[in-house]
Amino acid sequence: MMECQDDADDVSTTAVAKKKIMPKRKRKFNRDNNKRHRSTSKEQQRREQRSGAAADNVDAPVDAPAEENGADVQPAAIATPTPTKRIQQPSLCPSHKVRNAEKKAEGFFNECVKVQNQLNEEKIKTEQLKQELQQLRQQLIDDKNMHEDKAEELKDLLSS
């Protein structure tokens, strides 16, 4: 009887010992502003060094540098920054939104004014060119009439 109870106790303790207690899941979002926590590249490098050191030397303290832990550290690997996700800009308050919209509108208005000025300059140039063309046409017509008159005078002189 006693042996049965001991076996039952062993089963219950081994079942508890075998049961893995999962740690609570870390919060993905900050309670204040619901933005994801972003780690900098330095923090990521430290984590990589620690994880590499932990795999190489289990007994070494976690805070010790990787070289002391026995990990092979390559300067080129540490010097290159790890790519990070693009950080989303925080939303602006209404007054800043209005200011930004006003700045954009002002820039757009200034651009429109520049284009309008260029258009006016082009119109002035085309008007000047039209006037020059009209003068050249008139001069050509006058020259043609003068040559025709001279030709008739020469014919009259030759016939007489």
UniProtKB/TrEMBL annotation:
Residues 98-157 form a coiled coil. It comes from the Eukaryota. Residues 40-50 have a biased composition (Basic and acidic residues). Residues 1-94 are annotated as: Disordered. Residues 53-64 have a biased composition (Low complexity). Residues 81-92 have a biased composition (Polar residues). Keywords: Coiled coil. Residues 1-10 have a biased composition (Acidic residues). Residues 17-39 have a biased composition (Basic residues). The keyword Coiled coil applies. This is Uncharacterized protein. It comes from Skeletonema marinoi. The lineage of its organism: Eukaryota, Sar, Stramenopiles, Ochrophyta, Bacillariophyta.
